[in-house]
């Protein structure tokens, strides 16, 4: 019984110290909680950008992509879609139902999902991470030469070769 009473007194003392610390530092605590909430919600925010959905006027090309860097090579089936207004979609897969990556892009915004590496990014193209610059340059290449049977594009150490 005596040990239970002692444990209760220790818990009460810790609670009083914690209450005093919170009461004395309430302005700081409120600021810290506000900053933490802001950081958590900004990291979890979802883009409100709306891409155009493919429609009858879009050009669709199917073929193969060979993507090569100094360290890796990726070969897959490619579907490229272009609208007359410059909207661009690229899907690379390894057979039906196995999407390796997808890219949606318009004049100022992009969304990149690489399922095989769990790499995801969306935002203004001007703020794209450097490792996506090659992928985001593909839109301009297809807009310049929409009817090419073969498109080769080199960006830094990356090489993209499409055959339709």
How many β strands by DSSP? 8
- Class per helix and strand makeup: alpha+beta
**Shape summary:** elongated
| Percentage of residues in DSSP E strands | 25-35%
List keywords for this structure.
2 domains, alpha+beta, 4 helices, 8-stranded antiparallel beta sheet, 164 residues, outer membrane lipoprotein receptor (LolB), chain A
Description:
This protein is an alpha+beta fold and 164 residues long. It has helices spanning 2-24, 26-43, 133-136, 138-144; strands at 59-68, 73-82, 88-93, 99-105, 109-114, 119-124, 150-155, 158-163. It folds into two domains: 2-43, no CATH class; 59-163, outer membrane lipoprotein receptor (LolB), chain A (Clam). It is built from four helices and eight strands; from the N terminus they run H-H-E-E-E-E-E-E-H-H-E-E. Mean pLDDT is 82; it is low at 31-45.
Task: Provide the fold topology.
Elements: H1 2-24, H2 26-43, E1 59-68, E2 73-82, E3 88-93, E4 99-105, E5 109-114, E6 119-124, H3 133-136, H4 138-144, E7 150-155, E8 158-163
Antiparallel strand pairs: 1-2, 1-8, 2-3, 3-4, 4-5, 5-6, 7-8
């Amino acid at each position: 019984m005596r040990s239970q009473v002692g444990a209760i007194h220790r818990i009460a003392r810790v609670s009083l110290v914690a209450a005093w610390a919170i009461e004395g530092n309430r302005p700081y605590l409120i600021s810290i909680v506000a900053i933490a909430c802001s950081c958590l919600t900004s990291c979890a925010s979802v883009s409100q950008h709306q891409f155009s959905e493919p429609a009858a006027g879009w050009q669709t090309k199917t073929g193969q992509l060979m993507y090569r860097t100094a360290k890796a090579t990726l070969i897959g089936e490619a579907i490229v879609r272009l609208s007359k207004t410059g909207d661009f979609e690229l899907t690379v897969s390894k057979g039906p139902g196995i999407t390796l990556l997808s890219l949606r892009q318009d004049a100022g915004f992009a969304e990149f999902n690489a399922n095989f590496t769990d790499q995801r990014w969306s935002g203004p193209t001007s703020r794209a991470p450097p490792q996506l610059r090659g992928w985001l340059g593909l839109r301009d290449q297809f807009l310049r030469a929409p009817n090419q049977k073969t498109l080769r594009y080199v960006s830094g150490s990356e090489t993209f070769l499409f055959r339709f």
